[in-house]
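re: ur question from earlier - yeah i can do the single chain one, its not a big deal. heres the input i used so u can compare w yours
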Amino acid sequence: YMSSLLKELRYSLYLIVHPFKGFWEIKHERKGSLRTAVLWLILYVLTTVLSGFCTAYLFNPGGGVNFNVYQSVATTLCLFFLWCIASWCLTSLYDGEGKFIDIVKATAYALIPLVLIHVILVPLSYALILKEASFYTMLVNIGYVWMAFLLFSGTLVTHQYTFGKTVLMIIFIILGMCMIAYIALLFFNLIQQMSGFVVTFWSELKLR
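and the output i got, formated as tokens:
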């Protein structure tokens, strides 16, 4: 079990520099698995928390003791699953060949550069001075651009889309995420109002 997991983790590092071949082999030749994808997602959440807590104050003035772990974890997981759900809904309508599990795997593997960047930047933040902040920012931007490219590659390969259709689909997915989030907020607001009404009604009933 451990040997196969280590093999999949090593292949993950190959995938981030050979994304088109890597995503194809993960989907069709089973070079990766859901367990490895979940592991990378967990590592991303942990390194995000580590970055929020441990990055030097110069590059993270709102972190340290002021860092909200629960908000960070919730935001990360919500964005991840919003992307996966919106992607699955839209690609199912527009001839996408990927299943939901394929989308989850591709999305989790796309997070690998950010995991690596966080691991590098936390200790590096204590070695850099203010004049070198542009170097720190450059590395952060490289991580996000790399992640975006992997997300694009994963969407293209997983669903067998053309370049143009992939770009269009990603725009639709982002709009779909906003729509799902808006509907969810409306739903929770409605639930909150209903529960408030029930509590008030019950209190009035007890007084009578």
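The chain has a mean pLDDT of 89. not sure if urs matches, ping me
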